[in-house]
Structure prediction request, 288 residues.
Amino acid sequence: MSDDTVVKDGKVYGGWRQPPNIWINSWIHNDGTAQKIGMRGGTIPGTIHLNLFAPLIIEFFGQRWFEKGSLSMFYTYATLDREEVRAVIEVPPKDAGDVQVGAWVETPEGQTVAKGTLAVGEPQEASYVRNVSLDNTPSEDLRILAGLRVGEEVPPRENVVFTQEELDKVLETITDPLDWYKGNSPWGASILNPSSMYTALNVSFPPDRIAPAVGFFGATELRNINGPLKANVPYRNTGKVICIGASPKTEFAWVDSELHEQESGKLIADMRHMTRWMKNSSPLYQES
Prediction:
């Protein structure tokens, strides 16, 4: 167990970490842009906090999670450059085969940054993100996302490769650059860290389909089906819009995506991801 991991009162507390904001020159991660729409400053993507769980996963679930496991998080509070955070999970039952436990990220002040579940195998209960109700908003009530449609498939990407060179650059910026990301893994090749899994699984639409607005991450579920995802291996990326909705301050879209091995066609991993766009950042709302 890591020297700064603590087990207390049925919970496992990871060590405090200070993720840097390396995206400070883009969109909501930029102080000026973020403050204009009411944020404290340039925010760190929620997916970066997923990396905090890897040491706890290895300690309590071992390599099996990377082969068949999920991490399901709903983002609730945006942190800034190098603000302290830590991962927390419930202690899993001993000798449990397929199990799901509560998991979250918190600040020293007790603010919950993200909350959800961590699972290995095929537990009976649905994950945190899969339990979120997917409520669609009529297209005539949308402005930013009026060009998208529920059920629409994203153009597939062929031969998606996350190279070792790309992975090495990521490891320079994350707080827990584990050896398994550097070629020394039980599967031989380097495996992708959670935030790089998001990058590989991410899908995008032509820019003219979404009106200009500042977006940020609302939720992410990563799921290893026949994992792990490996560096330097070609995959085929597919995705589909499953929900388009609106809240008082945002419009949002949920997208399911998959990565299949390019050569064999085997499904390796999938993701359910929600992105929000701030209404007060869009000219379409400022005109009303």
Notes: Residues 54-61 form the longest helix (8 residues). The chain has a mean pLDDT of 92. Residues 250 and 278 are 5 Å apart (CA to CA).
